[in-house]
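We close this part of the discussion by returning to an individual protein. The amino acid sequence and the backbone structure tokens for this protein are reproduced below:
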Amino acid sequence: MALYESTFIVRQDLSSQDVEKVTDTFAQVIKDCKGKVVNKEYWGLRNLAYKVKKNKKGHYVILFIDIPSVDELQRQYKLSEDVIRYLNIKVEEFPKEETPLARQGGAKYAGAKKVVRGDRK
């Protein structure tokens, strides 16, 4: 299977609990495609460089996933009304520690959780 970093931005008017539900929905799509979520990080509510679908801000979430193909996940991102942008990048390996944006932005917001890295074999 291939390793991917899947980043998506959720509408600004959703609460942190709603963002968690959206993230869990995509995690279930990944499991249905015979993949697994190795780690997830919430980067917080951040300003966008320009308005996207009438949104000035968005909740940023990144999923580190191990999946054969991201085709179905991308299709689900397109169908979701809550996701305003997404990006999937194929990587050789995942970062060993928490990303700088998670340290900087995620801790400032109510829905942020401290990420504990698990064993990645």
Notes: The chain is about 25% helix and 40% strand. Confidence is low (pLDDT under 50) at residues 107-121. The chain has one domain: 2-108. The radius of gyration is 14 Å.
